[in-house]
Amino acid sequence: TEAPFHGDNRAEQIGFRKEGKPSVRSGDRLFLYAPGGSRHIFALTEAVGDPEHDPNYNPNEEGSCRWKLTVRYIPNLNLSVASGVHIDDVISHRKVKLTKSIGQKSHIELHLEESESAYHLLHEKAKLSPLREFERAPSDIAAPPDRIEARVLRIIRDTVAAKSLKAIYDY
Predict the structure, then answer these.
(1) Does an H or E element contain 135, and which?
(2) Which are the contacts of 170, defined by CB distance < 8 A and separation ≥ 6?
(3) Half-sphere exposure of 21 (CA within 13 A, CB side)
(4) C-alpha R_g of the chain
């Protein structure tokens, strides 16, 4: 197994290596999962089309995939792999652990309780993850001029950072 990926995934397409066409269809939601050492669910996406055969597929090229699927990332639910949810934390009543169910498959269909559990856990992790936009905020934002205070407060209230701080400090 290759080393785990630790960055944010921003690819507009995800790939499937298996020969058969994936059963994923436009509108399906997909939790992205990093197998290997991390075993983390790290993003939630939505398929914006059906899988298409990749004309550039090369079986001798590392990472080349037979099928490509265009996806849209669900806002604020695209974490680094290391910040994601460990697969064993997802509530599941399968006879076999989710890690075994996935095995060498490119994808599996989650049961409703698994999907809900993964969503809630990912959402909680997203609230607690460091927020880049908060770190990049201008230093004078704490004391804006009075004449634009209402507008600035509105912008701050709608940011991911402000929502996370509100949840943490309950204001």
Answers:
(1) helix 132-135
(2) none
(3) 7
(4) 19
Kindly tell me if the per-residue pLDDT of 148 is higher than 50. no
H helices then E strands: how many in the chain? Answer: 5, 6
What is the rounded CA–CA span in Å between residue 3 and residue 60?
A: 19
Can you tell me the distance from the alpha carbon of 45 to that of 97, in angstroms, rounded to the nearest whole number? 23
- pLDDT(132) > 70: no
- Which two three-digit tokens encode residue 96? 């076999």
Distance between CA atoms of residues 11 and 5, nearest Å: 13
Model pLDDT, residue 97 = 81
pTM for the full predicted model: 0.65
pLDDT tens readout for residues 87-120: 899 988 888 787 777 776 767 788 889 889 999 9
The residue whose two tokens read 């790290």 is: 42
Count of beta carbons in the 10 Å neighbourhood of residue 69: 24
CB 36 within 8 A of CB 68: no
